[in-house]
Amino acid sequence: MNTTQQHLTTRSQIIALREEGLTVRAIADQLAVSTSTVKRWIIRYAETERRPRTRLTTRDEDASIIAASETTRSPSLSPSERRYT
Fold first, then answer.
1. Which pLDDT score, from 0 to 100, does residue 32 have?
2. Helix, strand, coil: what percent of the chain each, to 5?
3. Counting C-beta atoms within 10 Å of the first and last residue's C-beta, which end of the chain has fewer, N or C?
């Protein structure tokens, strides 16, 4: 595991342990990092917490789009002719 992967693992562990209710000190002790590191990642996560995107189409519209795309495909095209531009 490279350094970047280790850092990402530590960050995700910090957030997971915090969501389980552990204190900053307990997380720092468990992961062998400083309390300032734990606090920094908790704050950054809170500032940038990802939220799911709102749907732009309904499920019925999705089904219609998929059906239309499947019926308009041209099976006679070679792979080189199917290039997307």
1. 94
2. 65, 0, 35
3. C
